Amino acid sequence: MQINIENLSISYNNYTVIDKFSYTINSGEKIALVGVSGTGKTSIINAIMNLIPYEGNISFSETPRIATVFQ
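Request: output the structure for the sequence above.
Response:
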């Protein structure tokens, strides 16, 4: 399954965490989101799972099956 993220923007209380981020995750590819606290790593994952409001487009090449274990 391919995940296409196009012009993703996420804001909280007028503070922009992610601004026009685009990336394609290809089938079989492994990625890691790395950065200091507050840079939007969890926000990107939450947007992919459609748990938070965002601007932009996130599309999948097939119907996703997403499982999550929250801390």
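The longest strand covers residues 15-25.
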